[in-house]
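Hey, I was hoping to borrow your eyes for a little while. No rush at all, and the record is pasted right below.
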Amino acid sequence: MSDLIIGRLIKELRKKNNMTMVDFAKKIKISQPSVSKIESGRQEVSFSLLESICHEFDITRSQFFQMIEKDSIYHQTSSDINFEEAVDADKEIEHKIGELVSKMTFEQKKALFIFLFSSIKE
């Protein structure tokens, strides 16, 4: 999950809610330049900030990550996997997940863990 994809979604949600960067920054208690950096993918979103953002847009973390999923690398690489061969597909999916997780920051891994854990309970 890239910072750019996350930033684009936050920008899209902010605009849908008719908020300026300044208004949004005040509501989530960060500076307007930080919002700009986040939306452009130049600043990582911490887990606690993501909580504030989701609260402001009245969505759950699960909903946020489901929105991200539509732009995820899975959709770009799923055509490379032969789902007809279940055993091979399982190994390939595990490999792709491992590659993605290895590139994540600690905060991203933590958010993914919480998301996966919460989605199992739902």
Helices lie at 3-16, 21-28, 32-39, 47-56, 61-69, 73-77, 86-102, 106-121. The chain is about 70% helix and 0% strand. The mean pLDDT is 83.
